[in-house]
Structure formats: C-alpha cells, structure tokens
C-alpha cells in the first residue's frame, strides 16, 4: 500500500466498487431492454462504460494494496443510494416507458446519494490518484444527474 494511502482510501474503494457495479448492472438492464430512446440508451452506455473503467482501476489498486478482506467486508453493503435486491429485481422486470422512467429515477438517486461519500474521499483521502478520480466522479455524475433531470421531463 502506498505510504500516502489512508483508511479513507481503503473505505472508499470498498464502498465504491460495489456501488459502481450496481450502476453497471442497472445500465445493462436498460441496454438489454426494448427501451428505444436513444438519449437514455446513450446515457446508460456512458454510465456503464465509465464506471467499468473506474472499477477496473479501483480493483487494480485494491489488489496491489492487498486489501481483499476490506473489499469483501464492504461488498455486501447496500448504502449511499444503492437499491435493495428486491427493488433491483422489480426494476429488472420492467419494460418500455416504465423501465425508462424507473432507470432515470433510480440512477439519479444512486448518483445523488453517493456524492457525499465521494466528496469525503476528495477531502480526506491520502492517495492523490484516487482523490483525483473521486473529483472526476463528482463532476461526471453531477452532469449526468442534470441530464437525467432533462430526460425525465
């Protein structure tokens, strides 16, 4: 583990990886559906692709830092805007306009509620590359939330 890394960094990796994975999974449901709206599909693709790239990097750091136990401990948490398995299963059964609307609603909440945790990483993390990534996450997800608000109208 780099000398500059601290407990905030470890906690952030452990919480953010499963949080991102749920956003990836939610996006996949939409992309595998009959939702035809090209703007919503484009948004889902960008969320999936961006969060997959970030997860690959965060998982690489976790592996290099040998924090498997911390990653496993946090992997089952449902927090910071994540949805429960029951809500996810209901969401995954939707189609068409219902799925489109629910995707925008759930993803907006998913993004909005994780920003405080991400800001904590920016403010208190020790590992500069991870702090930088967290700052970029806030920028991207804030812009995506504005886009979701426009698409929901």
Automatic annotation (TrEMBL):
* Record-linked InterPro entries: DUF305_CopM-like, Ferritin-like
Show where the DUF305 domain sits: 9-151
Q: Under which name does UniProt file this protein?
A: DUF305 domain-containing protein
Originating species? Corynebacterium suedekumii
């Amino acid at each position: 583990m780099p000398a500059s890394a601290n407990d905030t960094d470890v906690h952030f990796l452990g919480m953010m990886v499963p949080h991102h994975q749920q956003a990836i999974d939610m996006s996949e449901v939409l992309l595998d559906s009959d939702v035809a709206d090209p703007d919503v599909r484009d948004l889902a693709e960008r969320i999936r692709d961006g969060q997959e790239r970030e997860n690959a990097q965060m998982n690489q750091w976790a592996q290099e830092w040998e924090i498997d136990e911390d990653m496993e401990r946090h992997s089952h948490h449902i927090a910071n805007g994540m949805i429960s398995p029951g809500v996810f299963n209901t969401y995954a059964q939707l189609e068409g306009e219902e799925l489109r609307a629910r995707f925008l609603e759930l993803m907006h909440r998913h993004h909005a509620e994780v920003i405080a945790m991400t800001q904590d990483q920016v403010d208190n993390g020790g590992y500069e590359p991870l702090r930088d990534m967290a700052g970029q996450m806030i920028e991207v997800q804030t812009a995506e939330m504005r886009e979701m608000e426009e698409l929901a109208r």
